[in-house]
Write a structure and sequence with these properties.
about 425 residues, four-stranded mixed sheet, 11 strands
Length: about 425
């Protein structure tokens, strides 16, 4: 009988219709496939049972979180090699992998069953979200989703994000890719403050304020009066302590509050940094309308948001199952054009859109390096499964940004008054920087 690695490689190539681009090592120590690159390790046959019962990405994700799949060598290289198989297959190939009526799949499934060992499948890892209640993007369910992702311990986030405690794309401007992560995050916060034209005494609403980094920067460097809102109690507690230590309690208020419940406008400016991904397509117009209503005439919105490439059939768009089950429950990405149109439909004049896709790949690679560099402590602070989730999701996201599967954009929008005076410069940016 052939060894497990050879059997798995043959089976994978039959299903995928082409050679497997990475080397495979199975639980019996056998190996098969191309040499000289990273190795995908199947540590336990339980991984196969997960993939039989949940074909596609979710089965693979469960096996990874449980430690039944691993990688030896460069994780980025392996993900880049597999990206064409996992995320960029044609619809026909996806159909082959999912259609139980296909004879080739049925024969392959029988072979896989024999190799996988006794059924039933293992239970999902404890880190998988369960028991969601309420309709998608209701206030109750949004609070559960935010808690699942953010209330995993501030010390863990400090380990990953570094001293800046900024959980969004940095801006590598002053020293290029040689800048420190902290410098790049400071430059991003300052870029947003300058785009919002913050001045002493301005009222700034920071929607999804995280651990308070934008609020602190706006108050300390520009003298703005800031209200920050978050649904995470752990974030709010950290931010309030930080603000007190900075001596800025007279300028900053942090609330555990849904942005839809903010009713003390008008504000001179609103920043929404990496928050709109949680809003959802069905609620995005409500989001835009709410922020528009909270601004004074002439007020500015800076919306910093991840985008995805448009689908040929937008109705067929589905939330990524790994991200939905383990990272950002109910999180949705929209194409850049849809975001811009919705902001305009709400009444905003969109004055500038800046795409900073490559910056997020650099940011994510720094976060992964932080995590890998203090791995044992990360595991102690959370769990082995949680640490593995973060390593995979951040590394895979970096590859996705590099391959232009997803992007990130800053939209500067104005609640332009009836006079038509937007208050923006004739040339807000000068195009003299090279990537």
């Amino acid at each position: 009988m052939a060894d497990a690695a050879s059997r798995l490689t043959t089976l994978a190539e039959e299903l995928l219709g082409g050679p497997l681009p990475v080397r495979l090592r199975a639980w019996d120590g056998s190996e098969a496939g191309p040499v000289g690159g990273p190795v995908l390790i199947v540590r336990d046959r339980r991984a196969l049972r997960r993939m039989i019962w949940k074909p596609g990405e979710l089965g693979l994700a469960r096996a990874w979180v449980a430690g039944e799949l691993d990688v030896e060598g460069d994780l980025y290289e392996l993900l880049d090699s597999l990206s064409g198989l996992l995320w960029e297959r044609t619809e026909d190939t996806r159909g082959l992998l999912e259609s139980v009526r296909d004879p080739a799949l049925r024969a392959a499934a029988r072979s896989l069953l024999r190799l996988a060992g006794p059924l039933p499948p293992p239970a999902p890892p404890a880190e998988e979200i369960r028991g969601r209640s309420g309709s998608r993007h209701s206030k109750r369910r949004d609070k559960q989703a935010i808690s699942h992702h953010y209330d995993v311990g501030n010390d863990f986030y400090r380990l990953v994000l570094g001293p800046s405690m900024v959980y969004s794309c940095a801006y590598w401007s002053s020293h290029g890719s040689d800048a420190t992560l902290e410098d790049a995050q400071r430059d991003k916060l300052d870029l947003i403050a300058r785009k919002l034209n913050l001045k002493e005494g301005d009222r700034l609403l920071d929607v999804g304020c995280g651990w308070g980094s934008m609020a602190v920067h706006a108050a300390r460097e520009y003298g703005a009066r800031v209200v920050g809102v978050t649904l995470s109690r752990e974030q709010a507690a950290f931010a309030r302590k930080r603000i007190a230590e900075e001596g800025l309690t007279d300028l900053i208020e942090i609330r555990v509050q849904d942005y839809r419940d903010v009713d003390d406008g008008p504000y001179d400016a609103i920043s929404s940094i990496g928050m709109a991904e949680h809003v959802g397509a069905v609620k995005y117009r409500e989001y835009a309308d709410t922020l528009y209503g909270l601004l004074r005439p002439g007020g500015r919105l800076l919306n910093h948001q991840i985008s995805r490439r448009p689908e040929p059939d937008e109705e067929a768009y589905e939330i990524d199952p790994f991200i939905d089950s383990y990272v950002f429950p109910d999180g949705e990405l929209a194409p850049m054009g849809r975001t811009l149109s919705t902001l305009e439909d709400a009444g905003f004049e969109v004055r500038d859109v800046e795409a900073i896709r490559e910056h997020y790949a650099l940011t994510l690679r720094r976060w992964v390096a932080n995590l890998e560099g203090d791995w044992d402590r990360a595991v102690r602070l959370t769990s082995p499964g949680r640490a593995r989730i973060w390593r995979l999701y951040m590394a895979a996201s970096a590859v996705s940004f590099e391959r232009n599967r997803i992007g990130v954009n800053q939209f500067l929008a104005v609640k332009t008054p009836v006079s038509g005076k937007s208050g923006t410069a004739l040339r807000p940016r000068v195009w003299n920087e090279q990537p």
